[in-house]
Amino acid sequence: MGASAAVRRRLGAALGVAGMVVPLTVAFGAPAQAASCTTRTGPYQKEVEKFLGRPVDGRQSPADCKAIQAFQTKHGISPNIGYAGPITWGVMDLMLQQKAAGKNPNKAGRCPTNKGRIACVDLTRQLSWIQDGKTLKFGPVPVRTGRDHYETRTGAKKIYWRDKDHWSDLYDVAMPYSQFFDGGQAFHSIAGDVWSPPGSHGCVNMRKGDAAKYWDMLRNGDDVFVYGRKRGT
Which residues form the active site (predicted)? Predict the structure, then answer.
């Protein structure tokens, strides 16, 4: 390990930021493998069928199960047995809310428009975007925030430390494009799926391309505003 890497690790430990969030393979085990399909009809069968473009009859079929199972496997939902239960429908419903936000995520005016450039985080819809006044500059993009007992803290923040190649000492994993805004909580990319439940250990997880764009657009001292409440917390 080079001297610069050692410095980063020591600084991360001093700030208490190391290991706040870990990739899905560390936090929740390896990505789900295909399991046997269930024949059971789930409580959200019709909603899930409609979301997946399946015939909406409210009855589980082998084809339904395979389609549901593929969705579960892709998004790290366990058990991935093709059951149309509340966790699977919760992810789908969240995706629908995110799509409905369109290019006007701050329609309700919850994120301040008098701060200039600001990164907004809506915990309810698991969305983030960058705006300048009332002008949308980037996003909205899906994010993955803190799970129950590790909630991403709400309120007005500022980015205070950035580390493009941050490393978590606690879990011995990379946290690329880290931009810390509240203690150990930061924007950063993950290797896993941002829709995978139950959530992070407090950080705002992003897809790599989105995290890289945030890195290019934000600076130390820029405002961050977090509001809402994530389902299940």
Answer: 188, 203
Choosing from 37, 120, 166, 188, which is the catalytic residue?
188
Of residues 37, 65, 120, 203, which has the active-site annotation? Answer: 203
Tally of CB atoms within 10 A around 114: 7
Would residue 19 count as lying in a domain? no
Say what the pLDDT of residue 172 is: 76
Please indicate, yes or no, if residue 10 is contained in any of the structural domains: no
Q: Does residue 10 surpass a pLDDT of 50? A: no
Q: State how beta strands 135-142 and 127-132 pair.
A: antiparallel
Kind and range of the H or E run holding 213 = helix 208-217
Is residue 75 annotated as a catalytic residue, yes or no? no
Catalytic site residue 188? yes
Residue 95 confidence (pLDDT) above 80? yes
Question: Which range of residues forms the domain containing residue 158?
Answer: 105-227
Q: Tell whether 60 is covered by a domain.
A: no
Q: How far apart are CA 219 and CA 182, in angstroms?
A: 15
The count of domains in the chain is 1
Structure tokens at 48: 């899930």
166 close to 179: Cβ distance less than 8 angstroms: no
